[in-house]
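A reminder from the course coordinator: this example appears on the midterm review sheet, so study it carefully.

Given structure:
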């Protein structure tokens, strides 16, 4: 694969990732606003956003190579969930605990909280930290997700060339 093709594929992966992040974040924020614990909210957002990612990655990013073995959609879906389970569920939730419980990012949110509260958006430092924490994970998760999906979940074995007789 040429460097240009790989870069373009990463850019498309990033575009799908932006939409997926929005889907995930909106679901996460709705769930926490409904009173669900942030870990449960993260799990629900994960399940729905990976389904969204699978659809768009399959159609837009990792298009099926017609000169390779045909993909079986449900196997790719399972691999996609497994790939994201590591980064988007396990690693993401570990990092949420790190940001919220250990680093205590709410200690860094008062200026933004004051700005939002001054604009009529009533939010506590803790609630803002809970809403921001998943966004911090993107720097780690995006490159790792790309590599796992590209080289495992959506990979296809090349069909050997037939000898011409």
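Designed residues:
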């Amino acid at each position: 694969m040429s460097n240009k093709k790989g870069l373009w594929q990463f850019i498309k992966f990033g575009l799908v990732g932006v939409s997926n992040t929005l889907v995930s974040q909106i679901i996460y924020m709705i769930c926490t606003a409904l009173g669900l614990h942030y870990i449960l909210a993260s799990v629900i957002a994960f399940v729905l956003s990976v389904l969204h990612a699978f659809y768009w990655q399959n159609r837009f990013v990792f298009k099926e190579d017609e000169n390779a073995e045909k993909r079986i959609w449900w196997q790719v879906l399972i691999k996609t969930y497994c790939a994201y389970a590591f980064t988007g569920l396990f690693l993401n939730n570990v990092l949420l605990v790190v940001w919220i419980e250990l680093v205590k990012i709410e200690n860094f949110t008062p200026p933004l909280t004051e700005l939002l509260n001054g604009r009529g958006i009533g939010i506590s430092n803790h609630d803002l930290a809970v809403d921001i924490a998943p966004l911090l994970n993107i720097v780690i998760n995006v490159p790792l997700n790309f590599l796992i999906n590209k080289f495992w979940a959506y990979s296809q074995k090349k069909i050997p060339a037939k000898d011409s007789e």
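The mean pLDDT is 90. Helices lie at 3-33, 38-61, 73-102, 110-118, 125-136, 138-153.
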